[in-house]
Write a structure and sequence with these properties.
The complex is a heterodimer of chains A (about 160) and B (about 675). Chain A has about 160 residues and is an alpha/beta fold. Chain A has six helices and five strands. A five-stranded parallel sheet of chain A has the order 2-1-3-4-5, sandwiched between helices. In chain B, strand 1 and strand 2 form a beta hairpin. Chain B is α+β, with helices and mostly antiparallel strands. The chains are: A alpha/beta (about 160), B alpha+beta (about 675). Chains A and B meet through helix 1 and helix 5 of A and helix 15 and helix 16 of B.
C-alpha cells in the first residue's frame, strides 16, 4: 500500500483532507502531521514515528508552505537534502497563488504546485488524481496529466 | 527769443565793436593791396566777420557792412562802389555761417577732423559768389578793370578764404573752454614751442640770415613746429600758432622778405602756405581732441566698470588670460576665494579647483567649452586659500580681439554653498524618507497579503464543511436547512473571490512588470480558450478583425485585462439578446488600440467615468456576478503596461471598451 504524508498546521484543512480522501475512496494510506518539525521527525523516524509499519516512509508528500517554526520551503530543503527522501515526489499544497511562491517551490525541488481548492469538490478531485498517480507504478504520463488537472496552477 | 534785428544797447555795442574791428583789420589787410585794384591778399576781416556772426548771430551782419563801407570810403572808393563792395563783403560771412550752422554740429566747431574739413568747405564755397559780386562792383565803378575781373575775383576769394581759415578759428577757439590741464611742464613746453616758432618764423619770413631758398619748400621747417604745438598743446595753442605764423608770413612777404617775396606773383604761394598751416593745425588739434575725448570716455567707462566690479561683494568677478592665469582680481573675488590680488594674479585658475577635479581635467574642460562656445556655465566645489571648500555657480565668457584670436576669459562666480548644502540635506532627507516609506509600504503590503491570505482559509473551510454537511447530513435537513447551507457556501465563495481580486489589485500596484513585444493574436486566442466554456454556455458569438499588431506588454497582465473585458461582455449581456462580441485591433503612430465591443446592457452615461474605480458596480447590473474590482484591475494593469483604457457606451445597445498600448 502506498502512503501519502500530508503536512499542514491547520486542523480544519487536515480534517477537510481526511474527509475528502474518504469521499474519494482513495486506496493510499493517509498520514497527517501538524507542523514542519513533525514532518521531519516522521521522515527521519524519530520517537513515535520509529514504527515504520504504522508510519511508513511516504510515496508522495503534500506540503503546506505557511507554517510556524519551520515553513514549507525549509521542510522541502530538508527532504531534498536527505538520501531517504531525496527522490520522493513532493506536492506543494498551499493557499498561495502568487508567482513568486510557485517559482520558489519549483526551484526548491517541488514536483507539483497545487493551490488549495476553495471547495470540497475541487479537493476531492485533487486527492482522487493523487490516488491514481500512486496506483500507477511507475508514474506514467496519463496519471500525471490527471493529477495536475484539478490543480489551479501548474506551470 | 528776440527778433534778429530788434534794437538793444547790447546789440549796438556789439555791432559797433565788430564794425570797428572789421574796419581795423581791413586796414591791416589792405597793406597788401595789389596795385591794379583794391583787393587784399589776406582779408582777416572776413575771419572776424565769420567769428562775430557765429558768436553773435546774423543780427550783427550790418556791422560788417558798415565796417566795410567806412573802409572803402576812407580808401577813396566812390560811394556807390564802396557800398556794393561792403554788401558783398557782408554776404560772404553770412553765407559761410549759414552753411556752418547747417552742416556742423555746434556749439564747438573744431572738435573732430570731420568738422574741420566741413569748415574748410564752408569757408571756401561761401565767399566765392560774394567775391564775384565784389569784384564786379569794383570793375563797374571803374576802380578795377574788367580785364582783371578774373584775377580780382580769385584774389579776393583767396584772401577771404585765408582770412576765415586763420582768424575765425583763433577768435572762436579762445572763447571756448580748453580741456588741457596746464601743468608747469606744459607751460614750459608751450613757452618753448612758441619761442621756437616765433624765432623760426622771424628767421624765415622777415630776416635774410638763413639762405633757405624760395617758395613753399623753404617755409617747410615751420610746419613741424606748428604740428608739435597742435599735437601737444591743444586747440588754443594750435590756432594761435597758425595765426602767428601766418602773420609773420604775410607781413614778411608784403615787405619783400621771406621765401615768397621773390616769386612772381608771390600771393598764391603765400596763400597756399597759410592754408596748409591753418588746416594742419586745426586738423591735428581736432584729431588730438577726438582721441583724448575717446580715451577719457574709455577711462570713465573703465572707472565705472571698476567701481561696479569693486562694489559687487557677493560675486567673484575677475579675468583670466588665454592660458587660464588670473589677470584681474576684485573685492568680491577676494572675499569669496580668500586670496589678495597680489597673491593670485598671474597664477593659474586651477588653484581654485579641488585636486580631484584638477586630476580629471575639469579646469581645462571649462576653458575649452568657453572658447568653443563663447560662454560656459559651470558649478562645482572649489577650494579657498585656507583650504576650505565652497560650491560655486558661475559663467565664463571667452574674450576675443577684432581678428578673433582668444585674448582671455571673464569670469563671474557666485558662492552658493549654503544653497547647495541645504539642497543636499533636503535630498538626503527625501531619500531617507522615501526609503522609510518604501519599507513601511512594503511591510504594510506584506501584512495585507498575510491577512488576505489568512482570510482565505476560513472561507475555504466554510465552503468545505458546508459542502460536507450537504453531502453527508442532507437526509437529516429539510429544504430550508439545505437552502441555508447553500447560502453559507455561496457567501464564502464570494468572499474568497473578493479577497483574490483585492490581492490581485494590490499586487498590480507594486510588482515588477517586465515589458516585451507580445503577439496580440495569441493572447486573444489564449483568453478565448480560457473562457470558451462560458462563451458556449451563453451562446455568444465572437468576431475578430484581420489586423493583429504586435504590442509592448506583459503577457500575463494583458491576459488579465482581456479576460476581464471579455468576461464583462459576456456577463453584462442584454437579457433579451444573445451576446455578440467583436474584438478588433488597429495600429498607427506608434500606438495600437484593441477594442472589445458588445451588444449588452450598456453603461449609464453618468457612470461611465467611474466604472474603472474599485468597487463600482452598475445600478443596472446588481444581479451580475463580480466583486466590482474587475475594471479597476484592468485600469491598473493598463497603467502598468504604459497604456490606457476607456469605454464608450449606449445604454441598452452595448458598450465598447478600448485599450491603448505602445505598438512593438
Amino acid at each position: 500500500m502506498k502512503t501519502l504524508l500530508f503536512v499542514d498546521d491547520d486542523p480544519s484543512d487536515r480534517l477537510l483532507v481526511e474527509m475528502g480522501c474518504r469521499r474519494a475512496q482513495v486506496s493510499f494510506l493517509l498520514r497527517t502531521v501538524e507542523s514542519g518539525v513533525e514532518a521531519i521527525r516522521y521522515l527521519s523516524g524519530e520517537g513515535r514515528f520509529a514504527d515504520r509499519v504504522e508510519h511508513p516512509l511516504p510515496d508522495l508528500i503534500f506540503l503546506d508552505l505557511k507554517m510556524p517554526e519551520m515553513d514549507g520551503f525549509q521542510v522541502l530543503r530538508w527532504i531534498r537534502g536527505h538520501p531517504a527522501t531525496r527522490t520522493t515526489p513532493v506536492t506543494v499544497y498551499s493557499a498561495s497563488f502568487i508567482p513568486e511562491d510557485i517559482a520558489k517551490s519549483y526551484s526548491g525541488g517541488a514536483d507539483f504546485f497545487i493551490t488549495k481548492p476553495s471547495d470540497l469538490t475541487g479537493l476531492v478531485d485533487v486527492f482522487r488524481a493523487a490516488d491514481k498517480c500512486l496506483a500507477a507504478d511507475p508514474w506514467n504520463d496519463d496519471a500525471l496529466a490527471q493529477f495536475s488537472e484539478p490543480g489551479e496552477r501548474r506551470s | 527769443m528776440k527778433a534778429p534785428l530788434a534794437f538793444s544797447w547790447k546789440w549796438l555795442a556789439q555791432a559797433v565793436a565788430l564794425a570797428g574791428l572789421y574796419f581795423a583789420l581791413a586796414r591791416f589787410g589792405n597793406v597788401a593791396v595789389v596795385s591794379e585794384g583794391n583787393v587784399a591778399a589776406v582779408w582777416p576781416a572776413a575771419g572776424v566777420a565769420v567769428a562775430g556772426l557765429w558768436w553773435g548771430g546774423y543780427r550783427l551782419a550790418p556791422a560788417i557792412a558798415l565796417g566795410g563801407f567806412v573802409f572803402a570810403w576812407l580808401a577813396g572808393v566812390p560811394t556807390p562802389v564802396g557800398a556794393a563792395v561792403a554788401l558783398a563783403g557782408m554776404l560772404g560771412p553770412v553765407v559761410a555761417v549759414f552753411l556752418m550752422r547747417h552742416y556742423i554740429d555746434g556749439p564747438r566747431l573744431f572738435d573732430s577732423v570731420r568738422d574741420v574739413f566741413r569748415f574748410l568747405v564752408c569757408a571756401a564755397t561761401a565767399p566765392a559768389l560774394a567775391d564775384a559780386l565784389g569784384a564786379a562792383s569794383l570793375c563797374w565803378g571803374g576802380v578795377g578793370k574788367w580785364e582783371d575781373f578774373h584775377t580780382l575775383w580769385l584774389l579776393s576769394w583767396a584772401g577771404d578764404l585765408m582770412g576765415i581759415l586763420t582768424a575765425a578759428p583763433a577768435l572762436l577757439v579762445w572763447t571756448w573752454p580748453d580741456d588741457l590741464r596746464w601743468t608747469p611742464r606744459k607751460r614750459i613746453e608751450a613757452a618753448a614751442g612758441f619761442a621756437v616758432l616765433a624765432i623760426c618764423s622771424m628767421l624765415t619770413f622777415t630776416g635774410r640770415l638763413v639762405p633757405v631758398g624760395v617758395g613753399v619748400p623753404a617755409a617747410f621747417p615751420i610746419l613741424p613746429i606748428v604740428v608739435w604745438i597742435a599735437i601737444r598743446l591743444g586747440q588754443r595753442a594750435a590756432v594761435s600758432a597758425t595765426l602767428l605764423t601766418c602773420a609773420f608770413a604775410a607781413w614778411g612777404t608784403f615787405h619783400g622778405m621771406g621765401p615768397f617775396a621773390e616769386l612772381d606773383p608771390p600771393l598764391p604761394m603765400l596763400d597756399l602756405f597759410m592754408g596748409a598751416v591753418a588746416m594742419t593745425g586745426l586738423a591735428l588739434a581736432a584729431s588730438v581732441t577726438e582721441r583724448e575725448r575717446a580715451q577719457s570716455a574709455l577711462r570713465e567707462s573703465e572707472e565705472r566698470f571698476r567701481l561696479l566690479v569693486e562694489g559687487v561683494k557677493d560675486y567673484a568677478i575677475y579675468m583670466l588670460d588665454a592660458e587660464g592665469r588670473i589677470a584681474t582680481w576684485s573685492a568680491g573675488a577676494e572675499r569669496i576665494k580668500g586670496y589678495r590680488a597680489d597673491e593670485i594674479v598671474g597664477k593659474s585658475f586651477r588653484t581654485f579647483f579641488t585636486p580631484e577635479d584638477v586630476e580629471r581635467g575639469v579646469p581645462e574642460r571649462v576653458l575649452k567649452t568657453a572658447s568653443e562656445e563663447g560662454q560656459a556655465r559651470y558649478e562645482g566645489w572649489r577650494v579657498r586659500k585656507d583650504g576650505s571648500r565652497f560650491f560655486v555657480e558661475g559663467t565664463i565668457t571667452a574674450m576675443r580681439n577684432k581678428s578673433g584670436a582668444l585674448t582671455g576669459f571673464s569670469k563671474v562666480a557666485h558662492d552658493v554653498t549654503d544653497r547647495k548644502r541645504a539642497s543636499e540635506l533636503l535630498e538626503a532627507k527625501v531619500q531617507e524618507r522615501t526609503t522609510q516609506l518604501k519599507a513601511s509600504l512594503s511591510s504594510v503590503e506584506q501584512l495585507l497579503y498575510t491577512i488576505a491570505h489568512d482570510l482565505r482559509a476560513p472561507n475555504r473551510h466554510m465552503q468545505g464543511f458546508a459542502q460536507l454537511l450537504q453531502l453527508e447530513y442532507a437526509d437529516r435537513l429539510d429544504d430550508a436547512g439545505r437552502g441555508y447551507l447553500d447560502r453559507i457556501g455561496l457567501a464564502a465563495a464570494r468572499n474568497d473571490e473578493l479577497i483574490r481580486d483585492l490581492l490581485a489589485y494590490g499586487r498590480l500596484s507594486h510588482e515588477a512588470v517586465a515589458l516585451a513585444p507580445v503577439d496580440l493574436r495569441q493572447t486573444v486566442q489564449a483568453v478565448l480558450q480560457a473562457v470558451a466554456g462560458e462563451i458556449q454556455h451563453r451562446h455568444a458569438r465572437v468576431q475578430f478583425s484581420r489586423e493583429w499588431p504586435r504590442v509592448v506588454a506583459n503577457e500575463r497582465l494583458l491576459e488579465q485585462i482581456l479576460t476581464n473585458l471579455v468576461t464583462n461582455a459576456l456577463i453584462y449581456a442584454s437579457p433579451g439578446r444573445e451576446p455578440e462580441i467583436a474584438i478588433s485591433a488597429e495600429s498607427g503612430g506608434g500606438k495600437a488600440v484593441l477594442r472589445v465591443r458588445d451588444n449588452g446592457i450598456g453603461i449609464p452615461l453618468e457612470q461611465i467615468d467611474r466604472i474603472f474605480e474599485p468597487f463600482i458596480r452598475l445600478p443596472n447590473a446588481t444581479n451580475a456576478p463580480g466583486t466590482g474590482m474587475g475594471l479597476a484591475i484592468v485600469k491598473k494593469a493598463a497603467e502598468r503596461l504604459n497604456g490606457a483604457v476607456g469605454a464608450d457606451s449606449t445604454p441598452g445597445k452595448g458598450s465598447c471598451f478600448w485599450l491603448q498600448l505602445q505598438a512593438a
